[in-house]
Design a protein that fits this description.
The structure holds 2 protein chains of 2 kinds. By secondary structure, chain A is of the alpha/beta class. Chain A contains 7 helices and 7 strands. Classes of the chains: A alpha/beta, B mainly alpha.
Chain lengths: 204, 120
């Protein structure tokens, strides 16, 4: 999984890059906030980003605010990393839209656990988004089979929205996942049997 | 290895933290040696110009890299300069800045010693 790392300070960025690679992630490195936002706007953007608070052009919290405005279907999980340890800063960072906050110097195991939480959250959102898509498809199909359907009172053909008449089974097959298996109901079975007997040549 | 160096950065802690990752520590030592003099020069320049935001920013960057390397005492000096710039009391910073430069140079040497030691 790709993770964006945005930090203008090289020691911190190199360390983070090394940890993430060791944990099995694919880090993407940028040196300032504006660049981070450009990457996060892209179609193949990483779904987790670790952002330093103080960066040139755009700070970490400013990036968080801008990302919120993008209203992506699966918003990225944003972790702010900074040596600002004041409680008010933590509140400000989270209010800006970050999902998590880590202070420097961070405990490596704690950071790994927090990044893993981010991965689980993103995977959960992806699953949820996929399920919502499936549900929307199902709802669309159900909607197609609802409402007033004109049917011929003699041949029982139905008229679709385009004005074409088709067999009930053709219509339902086209508008749902239903498949038909052909058989006789008890009444028709009796009729068919009687018709069949009449067609047979009489025994001598 | 003198006592002052041991107080600035813990070689034992560094060795255990970077055990099996000697290449990474050598890379970090090189980055630190290259960027720290530049940052200190930028800090001096900003202080001379009375550029409080510039002093705050550069001191904060220095603090970040020092903390990542476990140099807490020196990071505190950077923090003092950062805080002074925020509260516009740059007069207090000169002595602290000299001490920061001194300690940063010691840390560079110590980092290089540990990074090139055969134990790593």
């Amino acid at each position: 999984m790709k993770i964006l790392v945005a930090d203008d300070e090289l020691v911190s960025r190199t360390l983070l890059e090394s940890y993430l690679q060791y944990w099995g992630y694919a880090p993407m490195l940028v040196g300032h906030g504006k660049e981070a936002l450009e990457v996060l706007k892209g179609p193949e953007a990483p779904l987790i980003a670790i952002l330093d608070w103080m960066m040139p052009y755009m700070s970490g919290p400013e990036v968080c605010q801008a990302v919120q405005k993008l209203q992506k279907p699966i918003p990225p999980y944003l972790i702010l990393v900074t040596s600002k340890a004041d409680k008010r800063d933590i509140v400000r960072g989270l209010q800006a839209g970050a999902q998590d906050y880590v202070t420097k110097p961070y405990d490596v195991n704690e950071l790994q656990a927090r990044v893993d939480v981010g991965r689980r959250m993103v995977q959960l959102q992806q699953l949820l988004s996929q399920r919502i898509g499936e549900l929307e498809d199902a709802t669309r199909q159900i909607r197609q089979l609802r409402g007033l359907l004109p049917i011929c009172c003699r041949c029982k053909k139905v008229r679709d929205d385009g004005g074409y008449w088709s067999e009930v089974e053709t219509y339902i097959t086209a508008h749902s996942d239903t498949k038909f298996s052909h058989s006789f109901c008890p009444d028709c079975y009796q009729i068919a049997l009687s018709e069949f007997s009449q067609q047979q040549p009489r025994a001598a | 290895m003198d006592a002052a160096k041991i107080m600035l950065i813990d070689p034992g802690e560094l060795r255990s933290r970077f055990a099996g990752k000697g290449e990474l520590l050598r890379r970090l030592a090189k980055i630190f040696s290259e960027q720290t003099p530049q940052l200190l020069a930028r800090l001096r320049h900003a202080a001379r110009r009375g550029d409080a935001p510039g002093v705050e920013w550069t001191a904060h960057t220095l603090k970040g890299s020092l903390l990542q390397l476990g140099a807490h005492t020196t990071a505190e000096l950077a923090e003092q300069i950062e805080a002074a710039a925020r509260t516009t009391a740059p007069g207090r910073s000169e002595t602290v800045m000299k001490e920061l430069e001194l300690q940063a140079a010691q840390i560079q040497r110590l980092l290089n010693d540990v990074a090139t030691s055969p134990e790593l």
